[in-house]
Write a structure and sequence with these properties.
The protein is α+β, with helices and mostly antiparallel strands. It is built from five helices and seven strands, in the order ααββββαββαβα. The strands form two sheets. It has a five-stranded antiparallel beta sheet with strand order 2-1-3-4-7. A two-stranded antiparallel sheet has the order 5-6.
Amino acid sequence: MTSLRLATSDQADTLLLNTSDTANKNIENIINDPTYSSEKANTLGSLGFFGYFLNTGATSNRGDQILFCYRPRQRYFFKMSEATVMTPSGQSKLIGGAGSSGFCRPSQASDFVNARQNVMTQVSVTRPNTQSLPVTPFGNVPLEITINSDDATSSSPSFRIHSTSFLPALSNASDAEITECLKKPSENAASFVAEVDEDDSTQNTYFGETRNECLAKIGVPAKVLVKEAKLENDVNSENCIDYGEGEDEITEECQTLLGLTPSGI
């Protein structure tokens, strides 16, 4: 019986880790795989979980956490209207319809990752306030990228993604207890306001634990994978003509790209 319990525990750990990893890989595919071009545009747009931190005025969003339930059986990966924006100040941001629907609901079959309804994954995306310093001067600047302009191509923004998978049925915790844990920040819990005192901000109540710590405390099996992601603009150049060499004709690649004849007309 002891070995059976151990085997069950190992299987649960494997399921949780694989599910969290799949969620992270989906984000990677959306950015890198041309097949997901529409999802990529959504993700990098002003109502996307990356674009929220990149667009005009986004500097004030640093440190915020965008939370959403990973629902792979849906036709889309992310909608801001089905997300929650958590801020360190405890104030709500109702951008793009975001509200309180960013948390997985154990009572809803559609919120489970699979049809067997055994595992759920809560995802949190943030752009940290502090960036790690490069080992060498300008080491964080990609080659061929300018550093003297405000253009979007002049930086490589870093993000932190927490994918927390958990098994609600393997605990005695109520749905309400699980939901309260999911509402807690994925990191820096002591810096996030849980309750705002309207009369005296010095009396605000802060979260004392992270989402994963809370789930562990109430006995819900859970695993969190943390992924550090960096977005970089991939700059490619094409040598269209070799002056002083060959026949001084535009290459076939550039003819197609620019719609020119071999002589450049």
